[in-house]
Amino acid sequence: MNDSNDSKDLADSADSPRLTGNVGGSVGGGALRGVGIGCGVLVAVPVLLVLGFLVTYSVQRGTPEDYERVAPQAMMTRIGDVSQESYEVLGFESAVGSDASSGFCYPDGLESMADEPADGAYSLSHRWSVDGVSESGAASALKRLHRHLKDEGWDIDSYENDADAAYGLELRASRGGPSDDGGGGIRAVFEWRDHQGRFEGGVHAPCAYNPDAEPGSEPATDAGSEVEPPELRP
């Protein structure tokens, strides 16, 4: 009986190392495979991000900006009307000449990195100034205009009507438009500077496509010289 039990114990002990070795090998192989999968994921994620970036960039570059199609003179009339209305509210007593200028329009989003203006698009500005305006006169005028623009639904971006303001008196306002990418807003800026005694106004139009421009043409930067700005009257 003892010999039989001893033989069984020896057989069991002989089998134990082999079982332990197999388990260790299985765990080690699984760990290596896990490391391999983890490294693959780490490599794949940046590649997918780069591919997604390139696809998004290509789509944006191939999609025209959501600007209105407005002839420069029609746009000049639109912002000129804003200038005239603002001038009447300000209450200055003399007629004032004005001028127009234009500039490039740059796309938003990822394609802005290319720093290339949109083909056939322009931005138009209308500017004017009044000399010999006192500080008290400028403060009263801006106060009236500030109240008027708020009542008309404009967003007041900044308003400095304090005599201690570092850069003089200022009112900046904006109004949204139909463009989904932010190109539809009109911006208006009114300033008085102590060292000059000059009151300046400016209305800046949103970016627009010139309907007369040929597809693939250069940006319509000559729009400012092609329009007739209005003379502002009290």
Report the biggest beta sheet as strand number plus sense, adding barrel if it closes: 8 strands, mixed
Structural class from helices and strands? alpha+beta
Helix/strand order = HEHEEHEEEEE
List low-confidence stretches. 1-14, 16-25, 50-62, 178-183
- Extended strand count: 8
Arithmetic mean pLDDT: 75
What fraction, in percent, of the residue positions are helical? 40-55%
End-to-end CA span: 126 Å
Shape: globular
Q: Provide the β-strand percentage band.
A: 15-25%
Q: How many DSSP helices? A: 3
Radius of gyration, in Å, reads 35 Å
List the helices and strands and how they pair.
Layout: H1 2-62, E1 68-69, H2 72-90, E2 98-103, E3 121-130, H3 135-151, E4 155-160, E5 169-175, E6 186-193, E7 198-204, E8 208-209
Parallel strand pairs: 1-8
Antiparallel strand pairs: 2-3, 3-7, 3-8, 4-5, 5-6, 6-7
Question: Would you mind describing this structure in some detail?
Answer:
With 234 residues, the protein is an alpha+beta fold. The chain has helices spanning 2-62, 72-90, 135-151, and strands at residues 68-69, 98-103, 121-130, 155-160, 169-175, 186-193, 198-204, 208-209. Strands 1, 2, 3, 4, 5, 6, 7 and 8 form an 8-stranded mixed β-sheet that branches. The radius of gyration is 35 Å and the shape is globular. Residues 1-14, 16-25, 50-62 and 178-183 have low confidence and may be disordered.
Keyword list:
234 residues, alpha+beta, eight-stranded mixed β-sheet, 3 helices, 8 strands, 21% strand, disordered N terminus
